[in-house]
Amino acid sequence: MTFHHHIGIQTADLDNCLAWYVDYFVARKTWTLDTFSELTRSRLPGITRLTEVVVEDTRFHLFEQTGQDDRLPGGNTVQFQHTCLATESPERLKAWRSRWVELYDSGRYHFARPDQPSEIVIDADGIQSFYTFDVNGLEFEFTYVPDGS
Questions:
Q1: Cα–Cα distance between 106 and 18 in angstroms, integer?
Q2: Which of 14, 81, 117, 128 is the most exposed place for a label (fewest CB within 10 A)?
């Protein structure tokens, strides 16, 4: 059974978000919508644009929504806590972390949180990972699992 199709990312600034996702993930923009069904408008009041970007077999649906609450994700609310993306090697894991720092330091993007990525940690099973936030303050975990499972 396969469930993977896309990850939806809500943003107040699609241009900033899109530029960061394209640069960070080396993603390609595949399509944009600015007209929505009644169902979409009822689920996502204030939606103005939706753009899909694709990197390898992962799709991100970035959608701009007006009238958002200014509170950052996190805290003690019911929500998806983070999204975990696996990489093929410890070197690639280090590269993802370095790339984040490079883009942050470039000053080209507005970040909702100033938090830097965590250090890469290795657990007792040899699994390596670090945590970081996208430009919207959404948390990602990047991980390397030695046996690939």
A1: 16
A2: 81
